[in-house]
């Protein structure tokens, strides 16, 4: 059972038959009631009839048989049937026996391109099945009349996809033989794809395979026994795995320049030359602001957070020690600088009021006397004092 590829219900071809079915595959533990639509040779399943995106799909290319299931169902009107595929058995429950016969007829008709004769149907219903077989044959016979792959398919291409024609694809594989021998390219009509391979057997042997798009989504290789795929990636992987690595995708990695350059014109002579892009200047580091701390050789000063209350009070009285934040250029190992504390200003006693305004006007140098001047003032006074004492002694003797 393939998962949805993103194609909308409105983009699918006309439905041959549709209705509710209860589905239970070999992977499902319980049955699910889904809206089933038969478009081409594919069954699409939706949650509800009004839904636009399908949940899953079932390709009927690997159909082996469609048979009745005789097991009882709680709903007496319901009828069961089995669809045997190459990869397992899928059980369906139709709402009625007539609906079961129609589902068996349509599934078998589009898968085998013939109407089964063992069905319990009315003549008009057999006529509808014959018309369905004819429409399916016409659809398969004219695959190129369908629309080209959607844009979403072309944007998600394998790495070995190249927009080259048939001859150039052979030359590319010959020239790049060491990088791969399989590539995907556009078909001649522009609405299909092609696989081109190159192998050596007494010389180069090239093979070209046409890849067609299925109307209900997916791709298949247009050979005698078509092989179907959901995506082009699955197709390329299939070619590599089934050939046991003999075919490898051609992947050419582009070359990239190692230096940036530009075309510059000379303002004087107009000459145009190719110039390399200047190397970017190394980024300069901004200066860092650091707070100085003591080194291991200096005593560490206590900070305000870890200072005891007593020391903190003393510090308030004499706020003489403080830290200084300085800006220093960045170094590999920035050193933290501690500035020495500045001394407190000396307290001076208040000056005494001047007793004599005249004396305050005398210059300070005039108050300082030299030794000679001091002697001149002392000697006369001493002599007069001696004379006075000698005169007193003479009076006493007389």
From TrEMBL:
Biased composition annotated in UniProt, kind: Basic and acidic residues: 311-322
Organism domain of life: Eukaryota
Region (Disordered): 262-373
Biased composition regions of type Pro residues, renumbered to the chain: 340-352
Biased composition (Polar residues): 262-276
InterPro entries per the UniProt record, alphabetical: PH-like_dom_sf, PH_domain, SH2, SH2_dom_sf, STAP1/STAP2
Gene3D superfamilies registered for this protein in UniProt: Pleckstrin-homology domain (PH domain)/Phosphotyrosine-binding domain (PTB), SH2 domain
This protein's name: Signal-transducing adaptor protein 2
Keywords: Phosphoprotein, SH2 domain
Domain SH2: 159-277
Domain PH, first and last residues per copy: 14-112
PANTHER family reported for this sequence: SIGNAL-TRANSDUCING ADAPTOR PROTEIN 2, SIGNAL-TRANSDUCING ADAPTOR PROTEIN-RELATED
Organism whose genome encodes this protein: Ilyodon furcidens (goldbreast splitfin)
